[in-house]
Amino acid sequence: MRFARLALASCFAVSQAQVLHQDAQQPLKLEESARRVAVIGAGAAGASAAYHLRKFADEAGVKANITIFERNAYIGGRSTTVQAFDDPSSDPIELGASIFVKVNYILSNATEEFGLRTVELGSAREYDGYNGTARLAAAPLLGVWDGEKFLITQSATNRWWDTAKLLWRYGLAPIRTNNLVKKTVNAFLSLYEEPMFPFASLSDAAYELGLTAVTATTGWQYLEENKVGGLFAQEVVQAATRVNYAQNLGLIHGLETMVCMATDGAVGVEGGNWKIFEKMVEGATKDVLLGTAVSAVRKVEGGGYILEWKEVEGGDGSAESKMKSEHFDSVVLAAPHQFSDIEIAPESKRVPDKVPYVQLHVTLFTSPHLLSPQAFNLPPDELVPEIILTTLQPDEKPGSDPKGVGRAGFFSISLLQPIVNRKVNPPREEFTYKIFSPTEIDAKFLIKILGLQDSPLGAEDDEGEEAQLDVSKEDVSWIYRKVWHSYPYHYPRVTFEEISLDKDFWYTSGIEGFISTMETSALMGKNVARLIVDDWMGRKKDTHVDDGGKREL
Ligand SMILES: Cc1cc2nc3c(=O)[nH]c(=O)nc-3n(C[C@H](O)[C@H](O)[C@H](O)COP(=O)(O)OP(=O)(O)OC[C@H]3O[C@@H](n4cnc5c(N)ncnc54)[C@H](O)[C@@H]3O)c2cc1C
Ligand SMILES: *[C@@H]1O[C@H](CO)[C@@H](O)[C@H](O)[C@H]1NC(C)=O
Ligand SMILES: *[C@@H]1O[C@H](CO)[C@@H](O)[C@H](O)[C@H]1NC(C)=O
Ligand SMILES: *[C@@H]1O[C@H](CO)[C@@H](O)[C@H](O)[C@H]1NC(C)=O
């Protein structure tokens, strides 16, 4: 039996909840060679799957030969950074996922383990060594804008007064919401531990934890059922669901709504969150094929899959390389199937459903100007908040993209770290902005928010072919646009995509309909890694769903 016996024994020690047996039809393979695993995608899910597969396989004493395929030229997927002016000495700016929170244990623990430094979600005014940040001292930290006026603002200094104002305006709603968040977070955290972990079905696990009841309703209904007043929901919670998921409370489900309100200990990794995933990949394998797109997964009669792949050249389609193919024992698809361009033939037992995704426009730009108070209907001597969140006016419908954005026209505008523009002589300090919107941010919009006059020069535009900006480089010195399929529309639902698509064929992205974050993708990657090793070892979890044990939230 060699390693198998040892691993089975250690498994007994690990969990009493697991029922161990050797599957009669699938006796353990005892050949010496390592099992070959293909991980498709090097985002949070794929990196975590590979990293934990290496760990679990080592613990079980099984040899795993892991190859990671990644279409992009970089590791991180939707966690990636860019640098203003393409200047390698400037602070990297998150273009996708920017924060995770304290209870995101996989990311927090990995950050610590890898010795990465985190930075708190700071305020632009806190950057030392910049002259211009003093100008921000009087600006509110945050404001919620409805397209006509700021409904609430929060100052950076007077916290006590802000709390008093909140209680006055919203009564117990903030406290009730906080308690709801705690309850749902605690239920969610059960997914990390035995007996829930590993979970073969997310639908079953969510049901057992009582979380299906939270995903079954809209955020609006969920808050209402729990006696959170409409004003707080509309002005605060909806501002949060819009900045985090570009969705309104009347459509997004209750669980993702709770995630938006769970912001305790929000941090990002200095230099970029992708560093976590780079370290995970490093810890898993040397066989990492960047700039390589898998085009087909073909099931083999005798077991395993033939993968076909090609190198992609800088994304411009030129210099197509020859297709390659090899056999793998197991395959992990760690990317939304609908955007992967992978042919699965013959069709796997379960093909992931196509679901609508948000198309989010992220616009980064630098400017020497602060936002114009007039653009936000403020008196000329007042300052615009550093972070502007938005919500709908009471008469506006919560419809989807792009109408759901309402009169505000954007989801958020935030001031990021200040920067020194070295392209001008002498170098000068500027501000960096990030806008989330459902449509392209055009010159008209920039001119309005910066309070500029029309001017003829074109600004530097890193993405090339975009429409010429009628904004001078003096006013907008650098601009970068990216359109993401950022996350699914989180319409209420009670079932989630299968994790096992077929024998030895695994899928991580189903968790995005439940919660779409770096952490949850990493959790699903870890879960799949464990399911794979359990499968190899002939360990089967008792999947009996204990109906009597369903918890109420
Ligand atoms: C603007 C924005 C802001 C966000 N903010 C946050 C935030 O603050 N906090 C947070 O936790 N989450 C945030 N998210 C969500 C978070 O980014 C995602 O939930 C998470 O990164 C998804 O990770 P993943 O590994 O599942 O998918 P991805 O990161 O999409 O990784 C999939 C990878 O697979 C690759 N791939 C696809 N097809 C193929 C193929 N055929 N062959 C080879 N490779 C392939 C892709 O190139 C990609 O790199 C944000 C997302 C966006 C877009
Ligand atoms: C993984 O398997 C491939 C194909 O058999 C082989 O070429 C490669 O050397 C193996 N890698 C490791 C690290 O064993
Ligand atoms: C994270 O680290 C803490 C402290 O060591 C540990 O108790 C916890 O189980 C870890 N969680 C995960 C998901 O790794
Ligand atoms: C900041 O102010 C000091 C003193 O006026 C000046 O010497 C320096 O050049 C300024 N820095 C920038 C980046 O503008």
Features of this protein?
553 residues, eight-stranded mixed beta sheet, alpha/beta, globular, 24 strands, six-stranded mixed beta sheet, FAD/NAD(P)-binding domain, binds flavin-adenine dinucleotide, signal, 13 helices, binds 2-acetamido-2-deoxy-beta-D-glucopyranose, Polyamine Oxidase, Chain A, domain 2, 27% helix, glycoprotein
Please indicate the percent range of residues in DSSP E strands (runs of 2 or more): 15-25%
Bound molecules: flavin-adenine dinucleotide, 2-acetamido-2-deoxy-beta-D-glucopyranose
Overall number of domains:
2
Oligomeric form of this entry? single chain
Given helix and strand content, the structural type is alpha/beta
* Number of discrete helical segments: 13
Counting DSSP E segments of at least 2 residues, the number of strands comes to 24
Residue-averaged pLDDT? 88
Helix content: 25-40%
Explained architecture:
The two termini are 46 Å apart. The longest helix is centred in the C-terminal third of the chain and has 19 residues. A hairpin with a 2-residue loop joins strand 22 and strand 23. Helix content is 27%, strand content 22%. The protein is built from 13 helices and 24 strands. Helix 8 packs across helix 10. The chain is α/β, with parallel strands linked by helices and 553 residues long. The strands form 6 sheets. Strands 7, 8, 16, 17, 18, 19, 20 and 21 form an 8-stranded mixed β-sheet that branches. 43% of the residues are buried. The protein folds into 2 domains: 186 residues, 3-Layer(bba) Sandwich (FAD/NAD(P)-binding domain); 276 residues, Alpha-Beta Complex (Polyamine Oxidase, Chain A, domain 2). It binds flavin-adenine dinucleotide and 2-acetamido-2-deoxy-beta-D-glucopyranose (3 copies). Flavin-adenine dinucleotide binds next to helix 2, strand 3, strand 11, strand 16 and strand 21.
